Amino acid sequence: AKAVPAGTTNYLWDDLGQGFASGTVAINLDWPGWAGFFNDPKSSKVAGNVGVKVAPKGSAGVRTGWSGFHGFSVTENCPNKEAAASLVWWLTNEDSQKFEAAAGPLPTRSAVWDWDLQQAANDPYKKEVLSAFQEEAKHAFAVPQTPEWIEISNAVYPE
């Protein structure tokens, strides 16, 4: 019925995000880092007309979703563990997380989360984003801790 653009069922995350930002996709289930992008008139035709809501409850009356964030590590075989650890510290320190949080991604440090909420006091959209994801976090679970998770996900998700 041409209710959605051709090829939508084959979209990957970036395709879906660009589709939403272009106004050709009406609903986007995505990670918080896109929130600022979608409400920025330089990158999104739907800026100013975007809302972020908690995922609806399913047929069992429960909300669900997966949660987590990218992590960093220093491998056992790393030739310069001190430099690698220094990079990990820099990427995850409070100032770096504030810089990142200002662009939209959710911080992992509690102090930065509190700072981000204070920054959102005069920004209704950012406040809505943070509130929605704060509520959603109560219902989320981490992905399974199995080395084969990506392979399993890639096989199951398309089905």
Question: What layout of secondary structure does this protein have?
Answer:
Layout: H1 13-22, H2 35-38, E1 66-67, H3 81-92, H4 94-102, H5 110-119, H6 124-137, E2 141-142, H7 149-156
Parallel strand pairs: 1-2
Q: How much of the polypeptide forms β-strand, as a percent range?
A: under 5%
Q: Which strand order spans the largest sheet, edge to edge or round the barrel?
A: 1-2
What structural class should be given to the helix and strand makeup?
Answer: mainly alpha
Radius of gyration: 18 Å
Shape: globular
Largest β-sheet summary: 2 strands, parallel
SS element count, helices? 7
Please estimate the helix content.
Answer: 40-55%
H/E element sequence: HHEHHHHEH
> How many DSSP-defined strands?
2
Instruction: Catalogue the unreliable spans.
Output: none
How far apart, in Å, are the first and last alpha carbons? 22 Å
Average of the residue pLDDT scores = 88
Number of separate domains: 1
How would you characterize this protein structure?
The chain is an all-alpha fold. It has one domain. It has seven helices and two strands, in the order ααβααααβα. The chain has a two-stranded parallel ribbon. The model has no long low-confidence stretch (mean pLDDT 88).
